[in-house]
Amino acid sequence: MIAEILSIGTELLMGQIANTDAQYISRRLAELGVNLYRHTTVGDNPARVKEALGEAIARADIVITTGGLGPTEDDLTKEMVAEFFGLPMEMHAPSLEALTERMNRLGREITPNNYKQAMMPRGAIVMPNLRGTAPGAIVESGQKAVAILPGPPHEMQDMFERQLAPYLHARTGVRIDSRFLHVCGIGESSLETLLLDLFHSENPTLALYCGAGEVQARLSARVGANEDSAPLLDPLEKEIRRRAGRAVYGEGRNLTLAAAVVNALRAAGQTVACAESLTGGMLASKLVDVPGASSVLGEAYVTYSNEAKMRLLGVSKDTLRQFGAVSAQCAREMAEGARLAAGADFALSTTGIAGPDGGTPEKPVGLVYVGVASTSGCEAQELHLRGERDWIRELTCVNALNALRLALG
């Protein structure tokens, strides 16, 4: 099955809101084994909507629209679909009843334009909206179909999962299962070279996606509706882990490096503290974003000035005078000072020059040191990062977390 997404809304074209609907639908179609070749976005203009719909339906087996189901005059998606297929609009009694009940429950008066939302193309498969007032519909014509979904993401996602996904599943008879391996410490080009021959398989398939300081490997297998994908995915995952080694830090679509670190600390019954200069609390914030982080992170220090480094972390005045705040020596003393002050098993430190100003020929913008202290000693890693200020700070956090991950063993 070939699908296209037609996103309707002038606010999308003007960049007033991000098109998260298309992102969500794209991901779910891939999981359902539906081929998606195009996204189209069009404003709330009847002629342009109808033109875009005609072009999409000529190419695809199913077109999925989002938006244009509200009660106002410019919400014309259903009407344009009905007109395209030569179908009259009719009042759908169950939708009207649900609309009336919902409005009464909310204590809101039904205005005449609200009834428009209960009108449907004749013969459509109506998809009730359990999160809002605008029901959706599936209009079929021969081997073609148009699925009409609301624009608000929470309404669209609920309708997709409850009603459109089962419809698509029944039509395709297949699904695509995916696993996501997260790799840190090997760049995208190096990882691709390492895994080059594995990209030539048709089923399962392998794709790489580059993020901030890490790479995500997506392993996908197309199987029948009732088949197990493990026999296809397990050998591929095992081989990637063998080649990439400790650079693979975990599996899961939404896994983060911070979560992997927190989970490893919890499993080991150990704690960490943070001492930050250029990251200014970002590193601790990434850890705190992980539920349960309170069991491993008790204290964090933002020591932006030299005075704070000396007073809170015990960094030596001689170290700052001889080597400066941006140095491996300072990073080590910051990390060890934080570990001792917090009574933690590990401590991370960050110091460097994020820019855009402050660099010198000897210490340019992007020079960063990450310190890792433990009960067995302290080490500092020198980094030469490129990019804007926020990007350098983000990459510093990634490198610090990865250094701790590797130190945990």
TrEMBL record:
Residue ranges constituting the MoaB/Mog domain according to the UniProt record: 4-171
Family annotation (CDD domains): cinA (cd00885)
Taxonomy, superkingdom: Bacteria
Pfam families noted in UniProt: CinA, CinA_KH, MoCF_biosynth
InterPro entries hit by this protein: CinA (IPR050101), CinA-like_C (IPR036653), CinA_C (IPR008136), CinA_KH (IPR041424), Competence-induced_CinA (IPR008135), MoaB/Mog-like_dom_sf (IPR036425), MoaB/Mog_dom (IPR001453)
Gene3D superfamilies given in the database record: 3.30.70.2860, CinA-like (3.90.950.20), MoaB/Mog-like domain (3.40.980.10)
HAMAP family with a match to the protein in the record: CinA_B (MF_00226_B)
Protein family: Belongs to the CinA family.
Protein name in the entry: Putative competence-damage inducible protein
